[in-house]
Amino acid sequence: MTGDPTADMQRQAAEIQRLAVEAEGEAVSEDGAVRVVAGAAGNLKVLDLRLNAFQLSGYELGELIVETIQAADRKVAAELSEAMTRVMGTATPADFLSGGVRRIDPDSEDQA
């Protein structure tokens, strides 16, 4: 801290921006068929399909890819939340980084 609140805020903002660019979360499906590396804001950096992935139906593989991407997204959000907490000095919940938008369940009638 420099004693200048504006300079401190600018330094924190620059550090958070750097962290957001560098943040990554990796997830591997339970059977090892799918590996994903995701960046902040849902940026998919790596999608690796092993040979056993092609033994699944298209539907099963699609579901497995989506689940693995979501797991990687959760990891990167947790990592970024922890880093932001260190920089800002106050807790930043991981769901804050996802925009707090809840997932829509197409089978649910209650979408309010």
TrEMBL record:
Coiled coil keyword on record: no
Keyword DNA-binding in annotation: yes
SUPFAM superfamilies reported in the protein's UniProt record: YbaB-like
Molecular-function GO terms, alphabetical: DNA binding
Keywords: DNA-binding
Pfam families registered for this protein in UniProt: YbaB_DNA_bd
Source organism, top-level taxon: Bacteria
Protein name: Conserved DNA-binding protein YbaB
Organism in which the protein naturally occurs: Glycomyces harbinensis
Origin organism lineage: Bacteria, Bacillati, Actinomycetota, Actinomycetes, Glycomycetales
